[in-house]
Amino acid sequence: MMMVAAALVLAAPAVQAAEPAKNGGDMLAKADANGDGKLDKAEVTKLFEARAAKQGDTAGVDPAKVDAFFQKADANGDGGLDATELAALRAAREAKPTAE
Q1: Nearest residue to 72 via CA among 51, 93, 52
Q2: Which of 1-15, 19-33, 47-61 has the lowest mean pLDDT?
């Protein structure tokens, strides 16, 4: 029994590392080009552009949409989206009922 418990304790960090961060940390790490721990408008614009390109949209990203998104998401008004704000966005999105 002790060996099973020890194996679970040792495996836990590997399992956590394999799972995407629930707090937006995975997206933050990938998109944070300047490494400051926050996403600025330029970094968010690049995310929007990448998503649009993936969906086949070549029209470009409307800066007004980025501004509106940023205004809604930047809860503390510091001009950057941190892991806490990204987690709040994810929670709000997951809490919305799906249309049937």
Answers
A1: 93
A2: 1-15
**CA–CA distances in Å: residue 62 to residues 11, 33, 47, 48, 66:** 45, 21, 13, 9, 7
- Tokens 């330029």 — which residue? 42
Measured CA to CA, the distance from residue 61 to residue 53 in angstroms comes to: 10
Is pLDDT above 60 for 7?
no
Q: What integer is the mean pLDDT of 39-59?
A: 91
Q: What is the dihedral of CA 82, 85, 86, 87, to 10 degrees?
A: 120
Say which DSSP state 92 is in: H
DSSP state of 71: H
Give the distance, in angstroms, between the CA of residue 22 and the centroid of all CA atoms in the same chain. 9
Q: Which CATH class is domain 21-95?
A: mainly alpha
CA separation for the pair 88, 94 (Å, rounded): 10
Instruction: Report the candidate in 43, 31, 28 with the shortest Cα–Cα distance to residue 82.
Output: 28
> 3-state DSSP call for residue 37?
coil
